[in-house]
Amino acid sequence: MSSLFKQLRVHQIFGANTDVGKTILTTALVRASALKEKSVFYLKPISTGPIEDADDKHVMRFGGKLANKIHAECLFRYNEPVSPHLAAKLMMPGDQSQLIPSDENVVNSIANRIRAHAGSISKHAHMYVETAGGVHSPCLSGSTQADCYRPLFLPTILVGDSKLGGISSTIASYESLLLRGYIIDAVILFQDQYYRNWEYLQPYFAERGIHVSAVHRPPEVLADPSDNFKSTEDYYNSITSTSEENTIPKLVDYLDNCHNLRLHELESMPRRTLDTVWWPFVQHGFVQSENDVTVIDSAYGDFFSVCKRNILQEPNATRSILAPEFDGSASWWTQTMGHAHPSLTLAAAQASGRYGHVMFPQATHLPALNLAERMVHDGPGRGWASRAFFSDNGSTGMEVALKMALRAFSLRHGKGMDSGAKKDLGILGLKGSYHGDTIGAMDACEEGVYTCEWHDAKGYWFEPPSVGIKDGKIIISIPPSISATPKANEIRLPSLSSVYDIEGRLRSSLARAYTLYIERTLEKLEKQGRPKLAALVIEPLVMGAGGMIFVDPLFQRVLIDVVRGRRSGSSSSWSGMPVIFDEVFVGLHRIGMESAGPLLGIYPDISVNAKVLTGGLIPMAITLASKSIFEAFLSDNKAEALLHGHSYTAHPIGCEVANKTLQLLDDLQTSDDWKAAQERWRPLDGTERTVWSFWDPTFVRELSKLPEVDEVMTLGCVLALKVKDASTGYTSQSAQTLLQKLRQFDDGGIGLSVAPGGDAFSVHFRTLGDVAYFITSLNTSPSVIRSIEDRIWKTIAR
Amino acid sequence: MSSLFKQLRVHQIFGANTDVGKTILTTALVRASALKEKSVFYLKPISTGPIEDADDKHVMRFGGKLANKIHAECLFRYNEPVSPHLAAKLMMPGDQSQLIPSDENVVNSIANRIRAHAGSISKHAHMYVETAGGVHSPCLSGSTQADCYRPLFLPTILVGDSKLGGISSTIASYESLLLRGYIIDAVILFQDQYYRNWEYLQPYFAERGIHVSAVHRPPEVLADPSDNFKSTEDYYNSITSTSEENTIPKLVDYLDNCHNLRLHELESMPRRTLDTVWWPFVQHGFVQSENDVTVIDSAYGDFFSVCKRNILQEPNATRSILAPEFDGSASWWTQTMGHAHPSLTLAAAQASGRYGHVMFPQATHLPALNLAERMVHDGPGRGWASRAFFSDNGSTGMEVALKMALRAFSLRHGKGMDSGAKKDLGILGLKGSYHGDTIGAMDACEEGVYTCEWHDAKGYWFEPPSVGIKDGKIIISIPPSISATPKANEIRLPSLSSVYDIEGRLRSSLARAYTLYIERTLEKLEKQGRPKLAALVIEPLVMGAGGMIFVDPLFQRVLIDVVRGRRSGSSSSWSGMPVIFDEVFVGLHRIGMESAGPLLGIYPDISVNAKVLTGGLIPMAITLASKSIFEAFLSDNKAEALLHGHSYTAHPIGCEVANKTLQLLDDLQTSDDWKAAQERWRPLDGTERTVWSFWDPTFVRELSKLPEVDEVMTLGCVLALKVKDASTGYTSQSAQTLLQKLRQFDDGGIGLSVAPGGDAFSVHFRTLGDVAYFITSLNTSPSVIRSIEDRIWKTIAR
Predict the structure, then answer these.
(1) How does residue A108 score in pLDDT terms, banded at 50, 70 and 90?
(2) Confidence at residue B263, expressed as pLDDT on a 0 to 100 scale
(3) Can you tell me the distance from the alpha carbon of B630 to that of B578, in angstroms, rounded to the nearest whole number?
(4) How far is A555 from chain B, CA to nearest CA, in Å?
(5) Domains detected in chain B
(6) Where residue B484 falls among pLDDT bands split at 50, 70, 90?
(7) Residue in A454, A580, A727 to test binding to B, most B beta-carbons within 10 Å
(8) Beta-bridge partners for A504
(9) Run of H or E including A71
(10) Where do the TM regions start and end (chains A, B) (predicted)?
(11) Residue of chain A whose alpha carbon sits nearest to that of B326
């Protein structure tokens, strides 16, 4: 992960093309740094071509009398003067190709060298990492350098191209670096007096906040080696001497300044944040110290790169100020392909470049249309949905769903109902539900922790039976309200798979008990006359914000059956009351399935997707509706349309990012990692339809047996861990306290290799009162998950 | 604007660098097209270097016996073999530099040639437009080609680089094209048997849905001209013959296929949209025909590029299927810098590449922190705000504002108030208010058109006096409820500036009348005991969705003064009840000022910004709050925090796009266009504080005198036009009917030159019942605005 050291200023040097003078200008930088009495480290990660021409040799050769201050090295060397991926292939043909170093190898090797140098110095030093060829020249594995080196997130110098066409290659290279989020401190290039590219590029980059240094061209290569050496040496002397007009020494000072500003910025961010930002869901009364603010400098894959304030404040720190922190809640359950995935960035950029945003009412554009079709016909809406309605987030998507359901219900059953009665139409749901923080979505939930002055819960909420693993056993916990006999409060099932075998369980006595209980409750409510229930709203299988409650799926299925009067799932019109699935959290494979409908054996009339939908990049939601719900809004009166819309409805960037995400999810579904995880969870009885998790079944079971742990449960990416605690609920700190060590930096070297760069890492996790939960991305590698499991285990079972 | 013709397939050819074989491969394409019995047009917009080496000459020279089918031309020719911007400068030095063709000139000239060719053919033909150098080589004006040619939005062929380093330059060039949204149909490059770039690039681009053609290298250049000609001719013959393995003829077929698929896609989009999409605010019962669906193929600056279905369906159409349509509502009031502004795309891309999205509670990242500081200290919050709270759109931003205000009020005044009473706390506002479509935001408005079953309006809304220009006169219309004498219902003021001179008007008798009326009404409400008012919520100066109602600013000022008990604006704690400014529509210069506070001479306790905030690209909102509001949520109880948050709270992309937007707005404020518009509106009396508009004052006045027009009003980007009509309100069609002609295609050549490419254009406008409104971006050029004024005038005064 991004390394940043107080005493060692490191820059990576990318070229706008091959043969633009990268090595010459880097050598000049190295010499100028050494002239400033600095130790200088030069690193060429990958070199191709004969050793006598190698860049690290050139650097040492022209280190001259400064050579004692300069350390130059190369990590991977190949003889053929071609692109690294080809050079490696030529050296390791055919069955040796597995010997070609992976991106991870390369990145970890560079990170090791940086760490080693940072540890070896006693005063300020400089380091230059010179890449090969252009920004997108392939690395050994074949991925391009701009992508391969991204985990290191090193501050960057771009060597521009001074030749004809060089303006273009310089700007295009700059944009490719920008797309990976790199901090570009400077552009440096030769002054070609004919093409004069620097004259164009200086104001161009100044506008973009980037410094451009233009340096005299080197002399022509001379035939005689010693003449050539002398002339080159003179050249280096002339451009690195600290005379007034020389740009290289000035650039070195400028880069020092960039480094210091970055340190200062990281130092100042917590205070500035505490002074201006109002965080969501945070009691600011508790956050008094700058140490309590997580400064996220960048993010990549599963990891944040966070600032370690204690190291930043150590006077002679030799450890990196930035360290990886596993994003253990997938950033509030949004991350899908990990942070900063280039495919999603490019999808966003392309839509932005083609449309920006364009208004949507009575209009269409490809990103929105493709997404609507995918979601309706070949996604969560498959088999039941007819329309896609776009809004901005899960909460607004649920407001739309509620507006749809209430209208459909009141058109059919609201004859003679006055507007007051319509305002009081209620929701049937489950205790612990959460549908978002806008007030309409809140009103569909019980009043509890998530409340506000206007929260006016409308409806009735059943206390649901739940599924969990307690002391190694799969247990359905039945609340006393359902189970007449206290003894039957817990039912044990042989496997998770059997819990989710709905068709099998529909014939059980428990199903009959659920049915009876639900029917009686609804009859009682009907007799009371209020609340007048108009829609059934559930989060299928897991209630997230309510505390990661895994609801007994049989209860949800029976509830829907009862409400619909046992209507068959294929009927084209809703019956009883419209059924809404809030799949904002659970949908699109977060819990190991695209949608809960097929597992429950029943489809909703309305459903909502968000979060994973846009791959963890930007907000957007889709509310799907069946034909009969849509038709409730058709009339010859404009005011009877669904009068809901947001300025950025169906914004092309969100739609295109969603299209790309769904495509990447298709690929993941057949990936080896997914297949292996599914295989681990396949029950012994060999049933085909099953549930599965990215977390290891043995780990999960053993965890549930620990004395501190009350209950564990997992599906898909989600691992929930309920701590034994007398005081439960949202304000409980018990889970936080138990697992606090995970967030601490000093990991004693556990799993050193799984974080980018092989860095020691901490784990950012979230709690909901006495429940701690961990949520991975959908492409988190098994080795990272095993490593997190190991840490959780060691933290609790210490 | 994007030209697309049924019979003429046009591709632009970009090079990954200079000297990659662009002309040779284009010549091969031209020959292969001609061999397929097509007319072929070759266009070199800009050529630099000696005429004997010019690319168009090469194409004709090697047209051979096919030359009768080939038409090659060059538009701008410069002798010096350097980048076009430099070649032009060398030819037009110093005081002649104004003779260098502008980007608009270049684009219009190309568009003219394409139109001319499309009109000249009777059967299918091909056209190739060969650019100069690399994708970012500067055009004559100095902007790079990828940007300069973007308005034409031509389907693109990228000529890849087969040399060492060519993988990088090809991918980087591809990404720069992607950032501009270009449709890239194919990559073509030479097969270099040593570097083998094509072997890498073929699978790379296949993954990205792009076809790669690799072609044998041309022979070495021979010293003898006639030998060289012969060898070149043989080469062209060999690569363009229609033999099995030849890629060039196959590529021509492939490009034909891309063209046909695009036509087919445009043809199918309306039906597919009508079958799957549920639009916001649209009565689908009214939209039965595919002709009623606006297909937006791309957008640029102020214009959509829309598909003209009638032309698409003409059997022998010679006009372009795509035509520009002026985005006359700034896409629901969001557009700021016009569509697809490269700076905003790059800002989005950089944030995506650095962070993706990262969770925000108790964390910080630079894009969010910089934005919060800007908004609080150096933006709309200047002088009063203390904190920035992020949410996803104007509606959620308002829900946050309401939650803040209700909590602050009930903490101070809610002692002994039960939760039922808190649910009934009411809002003081104005009739015609609109704060978004989530139910909490709706409840802060009267029940009217924008309603739903759960809408439960809580509060009291004054009927406000309004400002308008009637028959050339500036009129304040006082509703009968305020004015006791019917005669005084209309008050005339000398200028718009005098209307907005609040300090001056505070001493008027009207101010006293307002004060008395408001005080009496509030006393009466207090006596009634309900609604118990807890917050004053206003859209300062203009109520947008309510019908572009320009409220008398004096009334709003007096209302706030009365509510606050004439508290001075500088007090640090709120008084009376918290005051919320909903500046989602009016804020950030949409109506010619950053915020209405300074003009009203008073600041809110809470305010909301969205729309312009993110430059018209993606959704995000910020709710600003004063210190005393923030402190109402500080406690030692976690559950008393502001429990509102969205998954993507403070998403880095949105924050970084907002930061860039605010920076661009800073530049605009000192731009010549803005100064000129302000100058036009400066009142004769020379007062310094004034209001202004992008629309011409004379046009506005004259428009108001037309017999069909009841009233006109303008501020900043907004022009509102109320039509004389017996039936008013949301469902009225009168404004739509009056202005229908603006949306029609055949513009009789009015303002031909202002749309990109000089195309004929239509005007997309929106109505709210009997009000039609037009809203420009904040950088719409005066010539475009004049042209729209001209059309509006001619449409109504026909």
Answers:
(1) very high
(2) 97
(3) 12
(4) 28
(5) 8-263 (3.40.50.300), 342-668 (3.40.640.10), 675-796 (3.90.1150)
(6) low
(7) A454
(8) none
(9) strand A70-78
(10) none
(11) A358
